[in-house]
Amino acid sequence: MTRAFTVVGALALALISGCGRADEKVDTTPLPATAAPPYICDHVPLRAAEQMTGLRSPLTKGSFDLASGDGYGNGWCGVYEAEGDRSKVLEVVLLSSGDPRRVQEELRHGAKRLPEIVPGGDGYYRATQFAEHTGAVAVLIRDKSMLVVNVDRGAKGRDHEADVVAMMKLVAPRLITDKSAPAASASATDKGA
Asked: Is 54 exposed, middle or buried (0-12, 13-18, 19+ CB in 10 A)?
């Protein structure tokens, strides 16, 4: 009889625990429209990273050097699960090896074009799938600057593509340097008019 109560008790506990997880509310509100502190890696808004990943107080590491890479900047910021295998769930990477032709190639293969985020920049975004994890990636290129926002394991129930575009809008103005800005066109007075 005790054994039957133990089995029934274990099943009841499992059902209650399962219901608790199913009833958890996923924050599906859009990411903030403006970057605000606190920041991780000095440039990535923590609140937006938490919202995208569903993690609270995640492990983070990385840094950006906006003066390196011939002035185009380099660096990265990783967001990791605080428990378990401490998998990387979000990464923001800045490289000084951008090639604008990459955007056209990705668009031909089904990626979607990013809206204009920084003057002279062009980019794409698309959904990603790795095993049972869904995510998205966004890439913005201006001259030699290439900025990548990659969420490997987005919070369930969120629009991962919308999230990487929104995060790109938050971090690109902070990380894409003036070095990569397009040259201003000559005014009429400069042309001798």
From this structure: middle
For domain 38-179, say whether CATH 3.40.30 is its number. Answer: no
Report the side by side order of strands in the sheet with 88-95: 59-65, 74-80, 88-95, 145-151, 133-142, 122-130, 112-113
- Rounded distance between C-alpha atoms, residue 62 and residue 41, angstroms: 6
79 pLDDT higher than 90: yes
Residue 142 contacts residue 120 (beta carbons within 8 Å): yes
The mean pLDDT value of the chain amounts to 84
pTM confidence score = 0.81
Domain residue extents for the chain: 38-179
